[in-house]
Structures are given as structure tokens and as C-alpha cells.
Amino acid sequence: MITKDDILAARERIRLHVHETPLLTSARLGAGTGVTLRLKCESMQRTGSFKARGALNAMMQLSRAEKDRGVVTVSAGNHAQALAWAARQVGAECIAVMPEGASPSKVQATESYGGKVEIAAGEKRRAFERAQEIASAGRVMVHPFEDPRVAAGQGTVALELLEQCKDLRAVVVPIGGGGLIAGIAVAIKAMAPDIRVIGVEPNGAATMHESVAAGTPQNIAPKTVADGLAAPMVGEMTLEAVRRHVDDLVLVSDDEILAAMRDLMTYTKLVVEPAGAAAVAAIKTRKVSFDAGAQVAAIISGGNVDLERLKGLL
């Protein structure tokens, strides 16, 4: 399990290389929710998502020999882009295994950052298997969520949030494999334990819900418009972090996610991907109750949406 000290060390390690993302408000978007809505815009982070934090924290801890061996990962897109970017910062070669059907724009972006992309046919779990095969041949595996260096880097989102909003009462976090919520929850509960941490998953990718219910990480076949939240499993570390530190888990439908995307674009002029709208969807549909007027932050996790796909989604 990562600790507050791991997250504080990650911040010092990466702070000169990543953005401190803005915390915005929108009275219009928050109208009808009963809360003061704050938007932590990780869509404005380097490579377009929070993933740059964890990827860079991991890469900056590799030895020279490990960098020379190169790294490999598996990702639907955002972690692939982030790791390719981070690997280039430290002079390492990156291979990203992406599942069949991955967004073409995310594949192209990964390659533009210097990564080599391999597409794995079949179910999403096959991409994880292929990445492990490549790692067994000598490359360093940098897992998209079940890696303490990655999760600690993601936790730096919470450190910024606590500084930006002194009277924060709750933070709502989208869940894919669980690295983001693990880092955020560990930081929040260590530094401000009265703040609630709520996780959000799509109905069609309720991996963490099923894993919490079973008590062990479960494998599923996810089906959701939010490709960034469509991990076919969670990790033991991320599951344990959720069990220890997360107050509530809620589900949202794809239609609710898409409605939140449209509202974000209409009222805040933010273009986000479906995964990035999930937290707002949970707040707007009142899946969790809050005290009236409470300061509640939604993590806008990413903005990497293919423009052609965006037309259809909207």
C-alpha cells in the first residue's frame, strides 16, 4: 500500500515537469445539484489526462539499466500516451500494447510521443497478457494502475486539490483500474480524513463494485462508452485502497455520462472524454447525497476524445 510520504515524494519528483491543473467553478453546471461544484481539470494536464503524473513518477525512479532495457505497458490510450511521453523525458523506449478497437487518435498520440504501439486482438484482457509476455522478455512493466509508483503519482492530484479548496467536503473520482482513486484516497484520508471520497464507475464496467463485493479482484468483460474506465480488472493494491479509504461507490449509465459531457461543453466550454465526465454525471444525478451547499470536487480525468467520435457521442 502506498503512503502519504510516497505521494509527497512523488510531488517533489515530478512538480517541475507537470502542470498544476486548475480548479474551476460553474454555477450553471452546478445548478440543481445542491452543492458548490468544483472541477479539477486533469483534462488540461500534459498528454491530456492525469496519467502523466503516475507515468513520470514511475519513469523517474528507474535505474539507468532499467531505462536502457525499455518499458512496456497496456492501455486503452491515456496511460499509453503518458508513458510514451514520460519515457521520452528520461531517454527510454516505450512499447504500449493497446486493445483492439482502441481510439485511433489515442494510438496516433502515443506514437507522436515516441511510443511503439502494438494492437492486441481479442478481449481486453489479452492486451494485459501480451504486455506481460513482452515484459518477461526483458522490458520493465509499468502497469497502468497496479504499480505503487504510478498510484503515488496520481495521488498528487489530491495534494493540489487540498491546497486549492480549503473547505472541500467531498471529492468524486472516476474508476477504471483504480490507480487514480487509490492515490487520491490515501492522500485525502491521511491529510484531511473528514473529506469524503466517492468512486464512480459505469454500469457496464463495474469492476471495482464486483471486486469489493467478492473481496478479491474480479475479471469482467467491460462494455461502456467510457473507454478510459473500461479496465477488465482492478488490482489487489487498488482494491485494498478502496476498501480502506473510499466512503462510497456509485454507478452511472452511459447516457448519464454523455449528458454530463454535453453539459460540460455547454456550460464550461470544456471538451472532455466520457471517462472525464463520469464524476460530474454522478453529482448531477445525485447518486450520492451531500450537505446543502457543500464544496464538492469532481475529477475531470481526461480530455482525449477523438473528434470524429465526439460528433457521434454528442
Summarize the structure.
With 314 residues, the chain is α/β, with parallel strands linked by helices. It has helices spanning 4-14, 27-30, 51-59, 64-69, 78-90, 104-112, 124-136, 148-154, 156-164, 179-191, 207-214, 236-245, 254-268, 274-284, 307-313; strands at residues 23-25, 36-41, 71-74, 94-99, 116-120, 140-141, 168-174, 196-202, 248-252, 295-300.
Write the layout of secondary structure elements.
Layout: H1 4-14, E1 23-25, H2 27-30, E2 36-41, H3 51-59, H4 64-69, E3 71-74, H5 78-90, E4 94-99, H6 104-112, E5 116-120, H7 124-136, E6 140-141, H8 148-154, H9 156-164, E7 168-174, H10 179-191, E8 196-202, H11 207-214, H12 236-245, E9 248-252, H13 254-268, H14 274-284, E10 295-300, H15 307-313
Parallel strand pairs: 2-10, 3-4, 3-6, 4-5, 7-8, 7-10, 8-9
Antiparallel strand pairs: 1-2
Helix pairs in contact: 1-3, 1-8, 3-5, 3-8, 5-6, 8-10, 9-10, 10-12, 13-14
Describe this structure in words.
The protein is built from 15 helices and 10 strands. Helices cover 46% and strands 16% of the residues. By secondary structure, the protein is an alpha/beta fold. The termini are far apart.
Q: Could you name the key traits of this structure?
A:
314 residues; alpha/beta; Rossmann fold; 2 domains; six-stranded mixed sheet; four-stranded parallel sheet; globular
User: Which of globular, elongated, flat, extended, rod-shaped describes the shape?
Assistant: globular
Strand order of the largest sheet: 1-2-10-7-8-9
SS summary, helix count: 15
> How many strands, which pairing sense, and closed or not: the largest β-sheet?
6 strands, mixed
N-to-C order of helices and strands = HEHEHHEHEHEHEHHEHEHHEHHEH
Q: What is the beta-strand fraction? A: 15-25%
Distance between the termini: 40 Å
CATH class value of the largest domain: Alpha Beta
